[in-house]
Structures are given as C-alpha cells and as structure tokens.
C-alpha cells in the first residue's frame, strides 16, 4: 500500500472532512489550519480572521485505490470554487477555497484540473493553489465532528447534504 497526503480547504472543515471520509481508500482525514502566518493557531484565532489561515483537511489516502485527481473531483463537487472567502453560511478568509500542494506533481495536476474547471463555470474559479508550508491540527473537538454530531443543526443543514452528494455521485468509490 502506498500512502500519500493531500491538503484542501473549501469552507468549514467539518464539511470537507465528512465528505472525504466517505471514500474507500481514504486512510485518515484530519481537520486543521494552514496557509497563514501564525504558528499553531487556535480555532478562535483562525475564526477571528487574524491569522491568515484557512480551515483545511489533510487526507491520507491509498494510491492503489484512489488517485489524487479523484480527490480533486470530490473536493470541487462539495464546495463552490467561484465564491471568494465564502461557502454557504460561512464567510471570511478562513473559509476560502484552497489547495495546498505537497509536491510538484500535485501542483501540476491541480493547476490542470482548475484550468478545465474554469471552462465549466460562468464565474472564474478563485481557488488558491499554494505550497503547503505548515499544517496545524485542529483541536480534538473538531476531529470527526459530523460523525460525533450528525443531528447538530449545522451538520444537518450543511454537512449532511455534502455527504449525501458524495455517496450518490461517487457511489463506486465510497466505503
């Protein structure tokens, strides 16, 4: 088994984490923060918008079961890459659309994927494509949030539809 890591931010990390956890071949998904200028920020600091970080997830996946491009397909299906610093009810730089690549192959694959996507949307794709410099794991209460709180109002309204979309549109790749 060959394991690789990918890092994505597309709104609240609870939504993105739950979507990726549906996929067969995903070994682990960790919510956290990346893309900012403060070392080891807290959730409160990131939400205040003063750290420059985005809420992101790190996805460890088995390359024998999933390709990086499979992850990109899911990522871009579960959020709107044309809205700047906003996903649904979540507004602010910490909710921006961002792919933080781990190597040149991920960068090139992401850039090509976004170029193709740009032709599909009326508005321009605003997803940032940046190198991952540091990833900071979010507090324990944010890990596996949807799994622990499926009936919480935010989860019912915002996370559950994304999970259902992944399970329906990627049925051949779900666990």
Describe this structure in words.
The chain has 175 residues and is of the alpha+beta class. It has a single domain (3-173), classed as Peptide Methionine Sulfoxide Reductase, Chain A (2-Layer Sandwich). It has helices spanning 13-20, 43-47, 68-77, 104-120, 145-148, 153-169; strands spanning 3-10, 26-34, 54-62, 86-87, 90-91, 97-101, 128-131, 135-137. A six-stranded mixed β-sheet has the order 7-6-1-3-2-8, with helices on one face. Helix 1 (13-20) runs parallel beside helix 6 (153-169). The chain is globular, with a radius of gyration of 15 Å.
Element layout with pairings:
Elements: E1 3-10, H1 13-20, E2 26-34, H2 43-47, E3 54-62, H3 68-77, E4 86-87, E5 90-91, E6 97-101, H4 104-120, E7 128-131, E8 135-137, H5 145-148, H6 153-169
Parallel strand pairs: 6-7
Antiparallel strand pairs: 1-3, 1-6, 2-3, 2-8, 4-5
Helix pairs in contact: 1-6
List keywords for this structure.
175 residues, alpha+beta, Peptide Methionine Sulfoxide Reductase, Chain A, 6-stranded mixed sheet, two-stranded antiparallel ribbon, 6 helices, 8 strands, 35% helix, globular
Briefly say what this structure is.
This protein has 175 residues and is an alpha+beta fold. It is built from six helices and eight strands, in the order βαβαβαβββαββαα.
């Amino acid at each position: 088994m060959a394991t690789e890591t990918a890092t994505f931010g597309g709104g609240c990390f609870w939504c993105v984490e739950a979507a990726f956890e549906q996929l067969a071949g995903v070994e682990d998904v960790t919510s956290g923060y990346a893309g900012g200028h403060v070392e080891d920020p807290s959730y409160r600091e990131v939400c205040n918008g003063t750290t420059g970080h985005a809420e992101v997830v790190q996805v460890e996946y088995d390359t024998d079961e999933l390709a990086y491009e499979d992850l990109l397909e899911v990522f871009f299906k579960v959020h709107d890459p044309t809205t700047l610093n906003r996903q649904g009810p979540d507004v602010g730089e910490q909710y921006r659309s961002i792919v933080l690549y781990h190597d040149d192959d991920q960068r090139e694959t992401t850039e090509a994927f976004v170029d193709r996507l740009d032709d599909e949307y009326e508005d321009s794709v605003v997803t940032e494509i940046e190198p991952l410099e540091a990833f900071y794991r979010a507090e324990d209460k944010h890990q596996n949030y949807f799994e622990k709180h499926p009936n919480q109002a935010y989860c019912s309204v915002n996370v559950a539809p994304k999970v259902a979309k992944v399970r329906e549109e990627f049925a051949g790749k779900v666990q």
